[in-house]
Write a structure and sequence with these properties.
Elements: H1 21-34, H2 37-47, H3 55-69, H4 74-81, H5 85-99, H6 101-116, H7 124-135, H8 139-142, H9 146-162, H10 179-186
Helix pairs in contact: 1-2, 1-3, 1-4, 2-3, 4-5, 5-6
Length: 203
């Protein structure tokens, strides 16, 4: 990019599966037993543990859940297996943000910012505005087909609903993080709490 260092390309492969809650509950225990993500993907695909209809879907979902969970620590994965529904949603939202810088920036720059400014509604227009801004600096975003944009937009909003951070009618739900999830997210620098609609520290 002229005038400065090029931006890192966004990974934009989150076109299906939303938070992958059920997939995570299959994959996380396998990893804690095997400690090898390639082995986990192999086991999931071979035995069709995610009950996918086609081989291609089976391989894609196995790869995606492994890539998402690989950004969590062993302690976080153990908590995921032994979590409440709310904790599970929060951990998997954090995993999606760590895996995808695009989602992380949307979470911090739009979701959390709107919450802190006490403008609790979040709709597709906010995502589209965010995406147009990123397209100015990222050729891979500018080149997206409208059909792909629609899938990415839909999936991010589904993730937020599944994580308990957005109501079905588009109102931001304040994140009430459990002490153990908060402790793990805060252990990172900067804190992953910055991805959540909460006034708790996220720096």
């Amino acid at each position: 990019m002229a005038g400065g260092a090029p931006h890192t390309r966004y990974a934009l492969s989150f076109t299906s599966g939303a938070l992958l809650i059920q997939e995570a509950l299959v994959a996380a225990p396998l990893y804690l037993r095997e400690h090898d993500w390639s082995k986990v993907r192999e086991l999931i695909a071979e035995d069709n543990l995610l009950q996918s209809r086609t081989v291609a879907t089976r391989q894609r979902r196995a790869r995606e859940v492994a890539q998402r969970l690989a950004v969590l620590t062993d302690d976080e994965l153990e908590l995921l297996v032994d979590s409440t529904t709310s904790e599970r949603g929060h951990l998997l939202w954090a995993a999606a943000c760590r895996r995808y810088e695009f989602i992380a920036e949307f979470a911090e720059e739009v979701l959390r910012e709107r919450f802190l400014l006490m403008t609790p509604a979040l709709d597709h227009s906010h995502f589209d505005s965010f995406l147009r801004n990123k397209a100015l600096w990222h050729d891979e975003v500018a080149a997206l087909k409208e059909s792909t944009v629609a899938k990415l937009r839909s999936n991010v909003f589904r993730m937020l609903v599944e994580a308990g951070l957005l109501s079905e009618n588009g109102n931001i739900i304040p994140a009430v993080l459990s002490d153990r999830v908060s402790e793990m997210l805060s252990a990172r620098a900067p804190s992953d709490i910055r991805f959540f609609p909460t006034a708790r520290g996220g720096q």
